[in-house]
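Try this one yourself first.
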C-alpha cells in the first residue's frame, strides 16, 4: 500500500505542476498577437472551410478553457477569451478544437470509439464513487459490489486512455494546418506547439492518475479476498 501512496502523491504533484505550467503558458502566449490579427473565431472558421467543412458553426461560450467540439450539434465552442482574441494561444486552441471537427468529418476511429463510450462513461462517472464506497463498507458481506465499482472505474480509465490519441492527433492536425495556412510563422509556430504540448500533458497525467487509482482499488479487492 505504501508504494501506491508514493505513486498517488507523485501523480497528484505532477498533475499540479502540469496544470500550473499550462496556465502560465497560456497566459504568456495570450499576450502574443498573431501577425495577421485573426481572432480565434476567424482561425476556426478558416480551418473548417479549408478542410471542406461548412456544416459546423463556431460559437462563443462562457468560462475559461471551456473550449470543446460538440459532435451532437456540430459546433466548435470557443471560450470568450479565445473566440475574441487574436493571440497565438487563441489560434492554437481554436485550431485544436477544429481538429476534432476534422476528425469527425474524416471518421477518425479513436474519436468514434470515444464517442460510442460517452453514454456508458457518463453513467459510470455518475455512480462509480457511490458504488465503490458501498463496496468498501460492505466488502465482507457483498464483495461483488466493489468488483462492480472497479469495473465502472475501469471504463472511465479506458476512456482516459482512448482520449489520448484523440487529443494528440487533433493537436497535430492543428499545428500542421496553422503552418501550412500561414497562420503561424517561424516565430509563433514554436509558441503554438508549446501551448498545445502542455495541454496534451494534462491528459497524459489524468490517464496515469486514473490508472493508479484503478490499480489501488484492485489491490484492495484482491487483498480482501485473500484474507477471506
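Now uncover the answer:
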Amino acid at each position: 500500500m505504501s508504494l501506491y501512496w508514493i505513486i498517488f502523491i507523485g501523480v497528484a504533484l505532477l498533475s499540479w505542476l502540469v496544470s500550473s505550467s499550462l496556465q502560465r503558458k497560456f497566459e504568456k502566449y495570450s499576450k502574443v498577437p498573431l501577425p495577421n490579427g485573426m481572432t480565434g473565431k476567424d482561425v476556426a472558421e478558416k480551418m473548417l472551410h479549408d478542410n471542406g467543412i461548412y456544416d459546423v458553426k463556431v460559437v462563443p461560450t462562457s468560462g475559461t478553457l471551456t473550449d470543446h467540439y460538440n459532435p451532437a450539434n456540430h459546433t466548435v465552442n470557443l471560450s470568450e477569451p479565445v473566440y475574441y482574441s487574436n493571440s497565438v494561444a487563441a489560434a492554437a486552441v481554436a485550431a485544436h478544437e477544429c481538429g476534432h471537427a476534422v476528425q469527425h468529418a474524416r471518421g477518425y476511429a479513436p474519436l468514434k470509439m470515444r464517442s460510442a463510450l460517452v453514454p456508458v462513461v457518463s453513467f459510470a462517472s455518475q455512480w462509480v464513487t457511490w458504488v465503490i464506497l458501498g463496496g468498501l463498507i460492505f466488502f465482507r458481506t457483498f464483495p461483488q459490489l466493489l468488483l462492480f465499482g472497479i469495473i465502472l472505474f475501469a471504463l472511465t480509465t479506458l476512456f482516459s486512455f482512448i482520449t489520448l490519441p484523440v487529443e494528440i492527433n487533433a493537436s497535430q492536425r492543428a499545428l500542421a494546418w496553422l503552418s501550412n495556412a500561414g497562420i503561424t510563422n517561424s516565430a509563433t509556430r514554436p509558441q503554438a506547439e508549446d501551448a498545445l504540448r502542455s495541454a496534451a500533458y494534462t491528459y497524459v497525467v489524468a490517464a496515469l492518475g486514473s490508472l493508479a487509482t484503478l490499480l489501488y482499488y484492485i489491490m484492495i479487492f484482491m487483498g480482501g479476498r485473500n484474507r477471506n
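Discussion: Residues 64 and 81 are 7 Å apart (CA to CA). The longest strand covers residues 57-61.
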